[in-house]
Amino acid sequence: MNIQSPIRNRSLGHTACPHDCPSTCALDVELTEDGRIGRMRGATENSYTAGVICAKVARYAERLYHPDRLMKPVRRAGAKGAGQWQDVTWEAALDEIADAFVKAEQRHGSEAVWPYFYAGTMGLVQRDSIERLRHAKKYSGFFGTICTNMAWTGYVMGTGTLRGPDPREMAISDCVVIWGTNAVATQVNVMTHAIKARKDRGAKIVVVDIYDNPTMKQADMALILKPGTDAALACATMHVAFRDGYADRDYMAKFADDPAGLEAHLKDKTPEWAAGITGLSVEEIEAFARHVGETKKTYFRLGYGFTRSRNGAVSMHAALSLATVLGSWQYEGGGAFHSNSDIFQLNKAELMGTAMVDPEIRMLDQSQIGRVLTGDAEALRHRGPVDALLIQNTNPVNVAPEQRLVKQGFLRNDLFVAVHEQFMTETADIADIVLPATMFVEHDDIYRGGGQSHILLGPKLVDAPPLVRTNLFVIEELAKRLGVADRPGFGKTEREHIERMLYVSGKPDFDTLIEDKWLDCQPAFDDAHYLNGFAHPDGKFRFKPDWEGTPAPNKPPAKLGSLGPVKSLPVYPDQVDLIEVADAEHPFRLATSPARNFLNSTFAETKTSRDKEGRPEVMVNPSDALSLDLMDGDVVQLGNVRGELRIHAKITDAVKPGVLVAEGLWPNKSHLDGEGINVLTGADPAAPHGGAAFHDNKVWMRKA
C-alpha cells in the first residue's frame, strides 16, 4: 500500500479527503516511522486534484493530534450542557444507549427514536451504515435537506440526471463562468483548472456571486448581484442571446422542448428589467451576455450557492438553461456542470439496508430538528414525539437553522441523546452519552466526488487512539444489543462492505483500488454533453420543467408530497420572489456564507483556522454603516422573527448596500452572547422538494 518517499524516514500513504466538499481530493499523506501522519498533499497523479488541496486539509495533523480530541466515552454527570462528565466504559455506554432506545420505543413506538446524521464524513461505509440500523429497527426516517435539494432539483429539471461535462474540461475552455460558489474557499480545484485555461488559452474567468469574495478577486469579469436574483440575470442573458443572434436555434430545435415558447416568454426580460432586480448595471449585463454569446466554449460551473436560497431550484434551472440556449453543450470545454453524482452507480442497498425499508414509517426533515424536538405537530407528521437521538457526523446545535428551537429541544429533560464525535462539539456538550470517533486516516472507507469523476479508496493509514472507535463499530454493537444483528448487511467489516459494494456494482475489487488508488467514472464525451439526448424520455432539455412530476435525486417520499410553495414555481425560467424580500421592518438581506478556513463546523476547533478567521463578524457596506453611525469593529445587533444576536461589524465595500454577509460557521459560544448566526436562519422548506435557505434571510440591524 505504501511506497517509499524521498522524504527521509517517511513513507507515503494514499487516501481521499472525507469532508463535505465536491472536490473529494485525492491525497498523498506523509507517514512517519512512529506511526503518525505528517503533511498532506494533493495527489499529482490524479488528473482532477492535480496536486492541489486546500490549506486546512494540508495541515490535518493539527486536527488529528489536537489536545482536545475526544479519547474516551463519557456520561453526563450534571445538568444538560453544564459540562460535567464521568468516564464510562464502551460496554456500559452502548448498553445505556440501547436501553434508552428500547424504553423510548416502549413509550411511543419505534418512531420515537431518530438516528440523525449527515456529511461530517463522506465515506460511504462510515456515513451510511446508520441507515441500516434505522431500517432494521423501523426508527423515524431521515430526509436530508441541509445541503443539496434546491441545486440538484433545478439541474435535474433541465437535464433529467445529475451529470455533466468533465470538470477537467474547464482547463480547455475559452470562458469559465463560476456562478454561485466561492471556489477559492470551498472548491479549490475549480480554480486550478480555470486558471490553467486562462494561462494556457487566454480564457476569461467570470464570477457571479453576492459579494466580493476571494474568487471574485480572481475574475476577469465580476458580477455582484443581490441575493436570490440569479434567475433575473440568466433570463436577461438569454433575452440578449435571442435578440442578438447568439442563440443556437438549430441546436435547440434538436435538443430542447420549447425554444419558441421560451423566446416569447423572454421578450420583456430585458437587461433593463434585470438591472432593477439584480443591482447590476445594464452595461454589466450586456457585457456578460455578449461575452458568453460570442464564446462558444463557455463552461458554466454552477455551485451550491443555489441551494441556499428559497428560489434556488428556479435560479439553478435558469442558469442551466443558458447553456442550452447558447448550444454550449456541443463543445469540448463547454456546457454546464453542477455535480456528477449520478455517474458512479455504486450499489449501497445492502450497506443501507434498503430491503428493510417500511414505507409506513414517517420521514422527518433534517433541517426542522428544532421543530421536531419541540413538538411541532406538522414537523412530527402528526405522530408521536422523538424521545431518543443517535447522532453521527453532524453538529445540529451549531449548524441547523432556527437555533433557538434546536437548543430548546435538546434541553428537554425527557430527551435522550447519544453523540459519536471527534470533539466536544456544542451538540456533544448537551448530550447524555458521548462516544469518541475515528478520523478518516484511522479506518477503511470508499468515496465518490460529485464535483469530479472518481471513486477513491480511503484505506486505513494509522492506528486510532486506544479507546476511539469507528462509526461502523457503534452501529454493529447497537445492532447486537437491539436484536437485529442477524439482519442482512450486519456483521461485516469496512473492507467487506467495500468489497460487496464494488462487486455488486461491477467495479474493480478492493485490492485493485489499493493499487490504482482511484477509478475514473467519467462518461464518454457524447453522454456527458448530452449529445445522445438529455435524460428525459424524449431526449429533450426541459425549458418547461415538470416541477412536481420529474424524478429528482432527493425528492421527498410520496407520503410527504411536494414541499414549499410549489404553485408559485414558474412555467419557464423566471425571477420569482419566493425569497425573504427585504421590507421596511427588515431592510437588510443576510447570507451566512462559508469561511475559507472552516468547513461547516469542522476545523473551527483548530487554532490555525481560528486565528486566520479572527472572530465572528458581519460585513456591512460603508453607506449602510454611515446611516447607522457605525465604525469598523462596532458591535451591532441583528434580528428577525426567529431571534436576535450581537456581532462585530466589518465595514467593507465587499458587500452591496442592503446586503450583509456573515462568514462562518463559528461555534455559537464564539459569539458575544453564546448564540450563533443560525439563530436568524429559517427551516421552512423551499419548493419543490424542501431544503434550508441559509443565505436567504431578511433582518434588521442596529448599533448595539
Which runs of at least 5 residues are low in confidence (pLDDT < 50)?
Answer: 1-9
The helix tally amounts to: 23
CATH fold category name of the largest domain: Dimethylsulfoxide Reductase, domain 2
Arithmetic mean pLDDT: 96
Please report the distance between the alpha carbons of the first and last residues. 58 Å
Briefly, what CATH class of the largest domain? Alpha Beta
Number of beta-strand segments:
26
Q: Main sheet: which strands, in order across?
A: 6-5-17-16-15-7
Tell me what portion of residues adopts beta-strand conformation: 15-25%
Question: What is the global morphology?
Answer: globular
Question: How many structurally independent domains?
Answer: 3
Structural class: alpha/beta
Largest sheet: 6 strands, mixed
Summary keywords:
17% strand; 704 residues; 3 domains; Prok_Mopterin_Oxidored; single chain; Barwin-like endoglucanases; 29% helix; iron-sulfur cluster binding; Rossmann fold; 26 strands; six-stranded mixed sheet; alpha/beta; Dimethylsulfoxide Reductase, domain 2
Give an overview of the whole structure:
The chain is of the alpha/beta class and 704 residues long. It has 3 domains: 74-143 and 345-438 and 466-520, Rossmann fold, CATH 3.40.50.740; 150-341 and 526-567, Dimethylsulfoxide Reductase, domain 2 (3-Layer(aba) Sandwich), CATH 3.40.228.10; 588-703, Barwin-like endoglucanases (Beta Barrel). Helices cover 29% and strands 17% of the residues. The strands form 6 sheets. It has a 6-stranded mixed sheet, covered by helices on one side. Strands 22-24-23-26-21-25 form a 6-stranded mixed sheet. A 5-stranded parallel sheet has the order 11-10-9-12-13. Helix 3 (90-108) crosses helix 18. The chain starts with a strand and ends with a strand. It comes from Agrobacterium albertimagni AOL15. Belongs to the prokaryotic molybdopterin-containing oxidoreductase family. This is Reductase.
